[in-house]
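Recap from last week: sequence in, structure out.
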Amino acid sequence: MADPANPVIDAPDSGPLPELWCERSGSGPLVLLLHGLSDTHALWRFVAPALAGAGYTVVAIDHYAHGRSPLPEVPLTTAVMADGVAQLIERLALGPAVVVGLSMGGGVAQVHTLRRPDLVRALGLVSTSSEFKPENRERFVRRGEKAVREGMASVVEETVPRWFTPEWPAANAALYQSIVDTVLANPPERFRAASAANSERGWTDRLGAIRCPVLFVGGEADPMGIDGVAATFRAAIAQARTEIVPAVSHLIPIQKPGELSAILLRWLAEVAPAG
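Predicted structure tokens:
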């Protein structure tokens, strides 16, 4: 029996889209890094050099409506964001790629893999899920509307502290402030569009169609409930493995970049050996 239709996975092709801004380093098999909501390519500032130094072409993007990438003229959806990733891989002519995405970027990576499996060599998922409960979807939409009404500062306190374990911000004040500053730099209208797109997440019943190797990495202290998410990926995807990093919350590439880099490099050595 065919899989049931999904409005995100089965959305029509977006057609030509503006180019995504990206930062490229290294040479070797292509690894594409996708950041989360309200962040930029700089999320991977500590991880990208480790991967590039190990023999990979590392491309960290700014999603549409983030950083230096534009807001497309078409309505922003997860499918549009995924199609932008597909067009970037085709433009680079280095694919198929190992696609690694965190949080919203992990959602985009899943949709991209389901829409264009020919462009994905392996899929890395960090601090992300395949499903949101209705109340979570509504929270993302409300938060975007609040940002437009009251400014980005109004959403910082309900988002950024959750991304780290309680003691980490005070012990890493300058780095923490740089994360806050990145969130504050988002134009509220763009944040609203991206928040609404991120709220669409709901394709658990389609995960079985992912045939490539998959690695899920979650933080033990992530308030999203990482054990249940990991179990979902293991149950649904034939080639999925999961790793839980202790004493870290949502932004593993910032809070524990060394541990994440080591996990990714061990996995990459199996699914896309360098050299």
